[in-house]
Predict the structure.
Amino acid sequence: MEILLGIVRFIGVIFLVLLIFNLMIVVHEWGHFLAGRWRGLVIDRFQIWFGKPIWKKTYNGVQYGLGTIPAGGFVSLPQMAPMEAIEGSASDDVKKEPLPPISPLDKIIVAFAGPLFSFLLAVAFAVVVWIVGQPEDQASATTVIGSVAKTMEVGGKEIEGPAWKAGIRPGDDVQYINGHRVNKFLGMNDSINWLVVSAESDDIEVRVLRDGKEMTFVAHAPLPEPEQVDGNLLQKGWNTLSSRRQLRKIGIGPATTPVVAGSLANSPAADVDLKEGDIVTAIDGKPVTTLNEIFDIEFVADKPVEFTVERGKKTHTVTLTPRLPDQPNDYEEALTGIIYNSAGEQKIIHVSPFTLVGDSFRTIVNTLQKVVSPKSAIGADQLSGPVGIMSLYYRLFQHPDGWRLVLWFSIVLNVNLAILNLMPFPVLDGGHIVMSTLEAIRRKPLNFKMLEIVQTAFVILLLGFMAFVTFKDVGDHVPNGSQGESKEPVFLPPGGNS
């Protein structure tokens, strides 16, 4: 029964992901469609997804269809520019007649309408998120360091943690990274994580507050070399195509409250009064405030430990006896079996629509700036296409407040859709605007043959880029041979074989 429910849930989530993803495409193309109708343009087709239609129907001279390639969509406006290379040709049942030319202003209005509708949809999502709220976890919102790695594996090699080597320690409250004020640990824009990974130098200046005093450290964190993958030529080729470059990191993590998320099956914690959401406040009478403090404790096998736990407004204690897991056989650390929520405590916040849309705009612009910067470690291989976006939507839906996160991410994605489509490249809406502006300046249409060549060339580049990011997206979910063998601890039930 559980398997059946799991399958039903999986299908339901996939359906919701596709529904939201296609809603954004439909709204964007609907903007072009309505603007085209308003300006009196001939509309051949309105199609969601690219490729040969698997379904089509002609109504009032317009062929409506659903394509075979689940990426994007289009409104065929033959008076705008030659687009057969990406849209194909209209079917014979769509009436074909010589078409009158249209003004550059009409072209600009129709081209701009798609991004405008995407932006308006982002605003609509932002208003909804403002009303219902969005989850914010402690790990994202804090600026206090909870863990500093003494050693790290980078590019297949173990090195001393850059932050630890520089003198940064747990409890430090980060104020600035490379001179930029920080206001959170995770996320984009002014977060610690973003300012580290997007740094354009190997030396990361970190200014912190420690015991009320401001201190500055410089962590040397060169970009990791690509890992070498063993295997045959096919495996190495797949790794080259699908793997992403590792991003810069200095080995720090956020300080979070020890919140219980569950327990390992058959472990010592499975038999005591612990529930999801409980907060551990003390161990053997010694107060603990961060998860890292618990991780630093070396439990002794068969020696009972008393945990003080806060549940709502009540406090109680539980005693459990750590022991070695049954598998793997070489596991050397005694465990309690408690699973903690690394994100810490969570609350619902209500952010104004202006801030939500503004932050999304900054996120996209900052990302594009880093992608094109020759000094940045963030390149095109860090971007995602439809596969990666739908995968992220699926993961967001797994969160207890997944529907709120999905609404929030839809703001970012629609702003992204608006900005990217306004980029001045042929095939994109921004390219149509640029070419129409040139036509207005020249006071005569651009050469049709030249337009056709340029459009076709950029279609090939666009399809090549889509294939490139799709390989990366698929590679995120397919082992590339560089992952080590998993050694997750397992506790067997009494009488089980070890």
Q: What stands out?
A: Residues 84-88 have pLDDT under 50 and may be disordered. The CA atoms of residues 166 and 203 lie 10 Å apart.
